[in-house]
Amino acid sequence: MKTDSGFFFTGATVLAGMFFLFEAWAMLPFALLASLIGLVLADREQLAGLDAEAAAMFLAHNERPLLSPDAFSGRELVGYRSGCPVYRYLHRGQQCWTLLGPEGEVETDGHCIRVFPGLIYRRSDS
Q1: Helix, strand, or coil here: 110?
Q2: How many other β-carbons are positioned within 10 Å of the β-carbon of residue 115?
Q3: Could you report the per-residue pLDDT of 20-60, keeping only the tens digit for each?
Q4: Are 50 and 44 spatial neighbours (Cβ–Cβ below 8 Å)?
Q5: Residue 3: how many other CB atoms lie within 10 Å
Q6: Over 70: is that where the pLDDT of 120 sits?
Q7: Which residues are listed as membrane-spanning (predicted)?
Q8: Does residue 30 sit in helix, strand or coil?
Q9: CA-CA distance, 31 to 8, in Å (whole number)?
């Protein structure tokens, strides 16, 4: 027999009811434990019910880390986004990156970086 979240929620409700009726303090930790286990199982059941595309929206999966703009020197200020300056070109050492656009709106390849607040820059040859 496989138990689901409803089983644990029902058990927690019965134990909590017995605690209130008979003032049996020993049942209260078991009621809390059963409700916690029920919450964990309910979360797993909901994730299992999602298809792959919906799960990808809720579970973070980024192959590019979010870099800080402080690590770069910028050239040609475009504007501000989320309180941070957005530059058309970013430089660090001998490397140069050109602004493509916001994440999710532009196509990326292997030569791109992601800079806070979610902007994509492509590595330039010059």
Answers
A1: coil
A2: 23
A3: 999 999 999 999 999 999 999 998 888 787 776 666 666 65
A4: no
A5: 11
A6: yes
A7: 12-41
A8: helix
A9: 9
Q: Which of 64, 43, 67 lies closest to 55 in space, CA to CA?
A: 43
DSSP classification of residue 34: H
Cβ(121)–Cβ(112) below 8 Å: yes
- Which tens digit of pLDDT belongs to each residue from 71-103? 888 899 998 887 888 899 999 888 898 988 887
CA-to-CA dists, residue 74 to 16, 60, 99, angstroms: 61, 29, 11
Q: Is the peptide bond between 69 and the residue preceding it cis, with omega within 30 degrees of 0? A: no
pTM here is: 0.48
Contact 21, 62 (CB under 8 A): no
Give, for 81, the enclosing helix (H) or strand (E).
strand 73-81
Residues 6 or more apart from 102 whose CB is under 8 A from it? 118, 119, 120
Q: Would you say the C-alpha torsion 83, 88, 91, 97 has a positive or negative sign? A: positive
Contact status, residue 71 vs residue 91, Cβ threshold 8 Å = no
